[in-house]
Specification:
Elements lengths: L6 E6 L5 H9 L2 E7 L6 E6 H10 L6 E6 L5 E10 L6 E9 L4 E11 L5 H4 L3 E4 L3 E7 L7 E4 L8 E3 L10 E2 L6 E6 L2 H18 L8
Parallel strand pairs: 1-4, 2-6, 7-10
Antiparallel strand pairs: 1-3, 2-3, 4-5, 5-6, 7-9, 8-13, 9-12, 11-13
């Protein structure tokens, strides 16, 4: 489960519109907005370098933050959008949504594979294919998991593991309403090629010789 909710300190932004946003960027800040929660939107600005560091660490949009703004009560938020420069790919604006602890939200959660060293199929030369490196779940704001742990220890060559066999956090459920495959252990490519060759040889042996009797 997610650990302690990290603080995110921002400043209230004076003024709105393109002019105020450009001024924030000139000051080394990234303009943003906090919306939702049955209260008025709050224009904010974040330190550009700090935001860039958090974005590069990953999972920024899947992280619940405790937003701290001077003069305002702390509030839990999650990032809903990061707008970027079309050429430089650097953040130019960020949107946050206020959340209650019981709020249900859709998030993509990373899949963490365990048991690779002990996996029966991999020891036999199989290849691990992770079909879904992340899974979209409906979760409560207070119980966002760090990852979905998938243990492949017992998988043989040709086996797969589906979402129904994975233990999810309490209250979480997949957005997709069917039992989909997360990862599988495939046969070694050399073995597959060998099997294809043998099938080809058998087909040639069974085929009648040219000009022969039917």
């Amino acid at each position: 489960m997610a650990g302690e909710i990290p603080d995110l300190e921002v400043q209230e932004r004076t003024g709105t519109g393109k002019g105020a946003a450009r001024q924030a960027r000139r000051d080394g800040m990234v303009p943003g907005i906090v919306f939702g929660g049955d209260v008025d939107p709050l224009p904010i600005q974040l330190d550009f370098n700090k935001l860039l560091t958090m974005l590069r660490k990953g999972r920024f949009k899947a992280t619940l933050f405790n937003l701290k703004v001077e003069g305002h009560d702390d509030v839990r938020v999650i990032c809903r959008d990061v707008q970027r420069h079309v050429v430089k790919d650097l953040p130019t604006h960020v949107d946050f949504m206020r959340l209650k602890r019981t709020t249900k939200i859709n998030l993509f959660i990373n899949v963490e594979i365990t048991g690779e060293e002990e996996c029966v199929g991999l020891k036999k030369g199989g290849t691990l294919n992770v079909l879904r490196p992340e899974i979209e779940l409906v979760v409560t704001a207070a119980d966002i998991p760090e990852s979905i742990v998938v243990d492949i220890t017992d998988l043989e060559v040709g086996d797969n593991i589906t979402i129904s066999s994975v233990k999810l956090p309490e209250g979480a459920k997949p957005v997709i309403d069917r039992d989909f495959v997360i990862a599988q252990v495939s046969a070694p490519s050399a073995l597959v090629s060998s099997g294809d060759d043998e099938d080809g040889d058998d087909a040639e042996a069974d085929a009648p010789a040219e000009g022969g009797e039917e």
